[in-house]
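User: Hey, my collaborator sent me this sequence without any context and asked if I could get a structure. I don't really work with proteins. Can you help?
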Amino acid sequence: MKLYVCYGTFGPAARHPCARAHRALTAAGYEPEVVRTYGCYGTDRLFRGRCAVKRLTGTYKVPTLVLDDGTVVDESDKIVAWAAANPSSKVPAPA
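Assistant: No problem. I've predicted the 3D structure and written it out in structure-token form, which is a compact way to encode the shape of the chain:
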């Protein structure tokens, strides 16, 4: 599993979509490979990572999650929902 992010997964999840997606995945028991794409707004096309995201989704926007089977989950809200609906077997069930 790969999680494409901007510059990292830092910052408050309430304001940073990449941090929000990463925290949801780790809370669900996943350890995604984090791919930093760099770039921002008008410079996105100059960065290899953002070009990879564009090939996957048609847009330069991150976060983007690519599952091991090749399925693409795009946008933080959808990634958070996917993580909540698909917890890893590593996470113990609630008591």
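In plain terms: The radius of gyration is 13 Å. You can pass these tokens on to your collaborator as they are.
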